[in-house]
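Project standup — Tuesday

K.O.: blocked on the structure for the chain from last sprint. Re-posting the sequence here as requested.
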Amino acid sequence: MNILQSRSLTKTALVAVIMLFAFTTLLVALPATASAASVATTIPVRQVFDAPDGAGSDGVFTYRLTPQDPANPMPVSTSGLVGGSYQFTIEGTETVNVGPITFTHAGLFYYDIQTVVTGSGRPGYVYDDAVFTVVVDVRNAAGNTLTVEVRAVRAGTVDPKVDVIFNQEYGFQPTEPGDMIPVDPPVVKSVQGNPAEAYTFTFRLTAQNPDNPMPEGSTNGVKEVTVTGSGTTEFGVWVYTEAGVFVYEVTEVNTGNEDYTFDTAVYTITDTVYDEGGRLRLSRVVTNHENRQVGSMSFINTYTGDSNDREPGDRDPDPDPDPDRDPDRDGDTPGGGTTGGGTTPGQNRPSEGPKTGDYANPMQIILIMVASAVIALFLVYLIYVDRKSEKEHVVDVDQVTPVAA
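H.V.: unblocked you, prediction finished:
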């Protein structure tokens, strides 16, 4: 082999070594470059909050994102990290994006998301107990980049891809019937006058809105109760299942009885129902027509009838002063004839004199008795004096001497 051939082989070997070194360096460098690429993503979580009108809830719920592998990347913010998990809150109905979370290499990364409930939870709240498993799929892409896809599966389902949605609710317990008793003013009926028989009066409770809650026995937002004579009554109690302001009116029903005047007073009941820690509470105000608060609903009726309105002690009229009289004996026979010793029509009947029980002044009787006693004593005295005088002037005829003729 000549010198030229030897030098050619040496150059070829050197080029081959350089190319091998370059290829090896490229193979080593490519993975290093790929691992240096990164991709960031967020996990969308939606909350749907349902609460009745007037609820006192702010609708704030807390959630926990827990990695199934502690080495999994976590959100950049460290303020929500609690014991290896990440906690966040959502208020009302809203969607939040949890993250960002940065991934530096390809792979499958699993996380669990669920509602945080402390103890038995807050009164009135109904918590969604769903648990979602979130899969973050990171893949290598051309140009030394990474791609990412987020999908979720709800525990207990076979749906391969769902949205992370929590349905949270807030409700309250209705009012208790006993809540209304201390604030339930009675209807007080007073009757002026002295009717022979007690009359039955009717009172009406009317809801401003026919859909308002009403006591048992109501129809289309109206209930009626009665009171016989003077007395009290109540319409009963009812239950509220929602917050709000509910208005009612109480009136007396004019039944048209002309022997009475009916009270036209109108009382207004205003019930304010509000939420207090998951329980409905009741505040009631009762006002009269002057908008003054009252403790009872008073109605006054006056009896105006004239046939039986008698005070105690009044005498009954006597249509016949002698109910035991026989009309045939007094000449009151049909046709105006007379029988027996009766009088004819138009004749004056003899006076029958006072009857036992007729009215007399006691003082006059006493004076007459005293005067009669004085006169009687005076007459006795005169008789006594007269007889004494006669005895003093009597002459005994036996002691007189007869005169000779």
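K.O.: great, moving the ticket to review. The chain is about 15% helix and 35% strand. Residues 138 and 148 are 4 Å apart (CA to CA).
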